[in-house]
Amino acid sequence: MAWDQTPERWMREFKFDDFRAAMAFINCVAELAEEHEHHPEIFNVYGQVRLTLTTHDAGNCVTEKDRQLAAAIDALLEG
User: Most-buried pick from 34, 47, 61, 79 (CB within 10 A)?
Assistant: First the structure.
């Protein structure tokens, strides 16, 4: 599944078998976010995670920071 993209935000939903797997993924995303110094909005219910990327200090629009973090998250899933 690809990122749902608008000029204001990129969003993607991920489904996992259980809460533990979802939280492990969230923790990996948190590490990436720290490395990129850019933090997504994270929503989690049991095995479902939704990430939203936007750059608040650029007026709530998608910037290169969002594109780079999205690519890193995608690479995490491929690896």
Answer: 47
